[in-house]
Design goal:
Elements lengths: L2 H15 L4 H8 L3 H8 L7 H11 L3 H9 L12 H8 L4 H20 L1
Length: 115
């Protein structure tokens, strides 16, 4: 885990701990108070079991916790770079929506040809 991820993890641990004591929070996660202190001080980072415990305690999906630690935006839309990437997404549509997409593309094509 890089330093920025360790810092974010420490901030998350402090936020989730809230007003609980170190001992209370450690007991809730099933780890020692020293382990929590090491996470807060960026001496070490939680392993998978620790991350699962943190996510469970915070009632946050693990994938969201990991994204926050990594500084990723789960809802960031990836812009397609080539038409084939758009086609991959279009192939996920049902038949009715694929036909509607074809109609929309044909309409756009007609507009392009008029210009």
């Amino acid at each position: 885990m890089d330093e920025q991820a360790k810092q974010r993890t420490a901030e998350i641990v402090r936020r989730i701990k809230g007003r609980r004591t170190l001992a209370q929070f450690a007991k809730a996660l099933g780890v020692s108070p020293g382990t929590i202190r090491n996470w807060e001080d960026c001496v070490s980072s939680p392993g998978l079991d620790g991350l699962i415990a943190i996510a469970t305690d915070s009632k946050q999906p693990l994938v969201e916790l990991l994204a926050e630690i990594l500084g990723e935006d789960l809802f960031k839309r990836q812009e397609p770079k080539v038409a084939e990437e758009v086609l991959l997404q279009a192939n996920l549509l049902n038949k009715k929506e694929k036909l509607r997409l074809i109609e929309l593309l044909a309409s756009d094509l007609a507009d392009l040809l008029e210009d």
